[in-house]
Each structure stands twice: as C-alpha cells, then as structure tokens.
Specification:
The chain is an alpha/beta fold and 180 residues long. It has one domain: Dihydrofolate Reductase, subunit A (3-Layer(aba) Sandwich). 28% of the residues lie in helices and 28% in strands. It has 5 helices and 8 strands; from the N terminus they run E-H-E-H-H-E-E-H-E-H-E-E-E. It has an 8-stranded mixed β-sheet with strand order 4-3-2-5-1-6-8-7, sandwiched between helices.
Length: 180
C-alpha cells in the first residue's frame, strides 16, 4: 500500500507560511533529502490554496526546473470544497471526503503520495490518521508571525521519530511516522 507523506519547511517557532520569506540557506544535504523524498513520490495531494498558488507558478517556472518538471508531470489530487474544477495539467479535484478518498488513493498502484505545502491539509490528515510520515525541515529562524502547522486545537496524537539529519547550515530535518 502506498504511503501519504508530507514535507514542510518550518521555523523554530512553528511557522510554515511563506517559507520563501525566511528560508535562505539551502544546502547540499537539504537538496539530497528533498530529492530523495521527491523520487519516492509519483503523485501529490494538495489543498486549494497551494493549488491556486502553484498552478500559476510551476507551469511557467524558470527556476527549480527539476521540481517544476516533476510537479507538472505527476498527478495532483486537489482537496477543496470551493473549487468547481481544475485547469493545471494532471490535476484531479477530489469530490468526496478526505476520510473516503485518501484510502482509495493509498490502495492504488504506485509510489508514495506527497503532500506539498498545504499545512491545513496536513493537520486534517493527521487528525484522520491518514498521514503516514511527516518530514519537518526545521530552519534555524524565528519567523515571528505567520500561519503555524499546529494551531492548538488538535487532538492528541503520538508519532515515532524515524530520522534526524543535521545540515551544514544548521537546518534539522526531522522525520516522524504515525505511531500504530
């Protein structure tokens, strides 16, 4: 069965919003870890906000061309109750509830399904016990403001630490798996 994995840039104070404003020191170790995660995925699960931001950027990207090619070519399952349709290449709007649709995706043949961006979606997947792995790329900054991954209203969940990688720039990549 496929796994649903999420990877997020996160500041020391828990902010995940707009990492482009505070994530400056990308190093080789981070690149290797993110490339390995990308190579393990052949589909994405994204929320509406990420869809709206990325669908206008990645099809015309002039930088990060490997990721642009990867994200454009792979199936993208979009979770939204507000969107009526999707226009981005290989995007599929999920019509049912997460609780029903994600298990169907996990039973399909293929590699992992990556959750790109979408911290609200990540929270929902954790709440529904549908997220198998969470990779937090912890940047050594205090962002000060912005949306956080956890808002304080989540139910108690236990995770197991599956890996820790420290990079030359002081970033720590923490990989957690759902405790079964």
């Amino acid at each position: 069965m496929r796994k649903v994995t999420a990877g997020l840039f996160i500041s020391i104070d828990g902010v995940t919003q707009s990492p482009d404003k505070w994530q400056f020191d990308f190093d080789e170790v981070m690149g290797e870890a993110l490339t390995a995660a990308m190579n393990a995925q052949d589909a994405f699960l994204i929320g509406r906000t990420t869809y709206e931001e990325w669908s206008t950027y990645w099809p015309n990207a002039t930088t990060d061309l490997d990721f642009a090619r990867h994200i454009n070519e792979k199936p993208k399952y979009v979770v939204s109750s507000k969107l009526a349709r999707t226009d981005w290449q290989n995007s599929i709007l999920l019509k049912g509830s997460l609780a029903n649709e994600v298990p169907k995706l996990k039973r399909m043949e293929g590699k992992d399904i990556g959750v790109a961006g979408s911290p609200s979606l990540v929270r929902s997947l954790i709440e529904l016990d549908l997220l198998d792995e969470l990779q937090l790329v912890t940047i050594p900054v205090i962002a000060g403001s912005g949306r956080k991954l956890f808002t304080g209203g989540e139910a108690f969940k236990r995770m197991s630490l599956a890996g820790v990688t420290k990079t030359p720039t002081g970033t720590v990549i923490l990989t957690y798996q759902r405790k079964r």
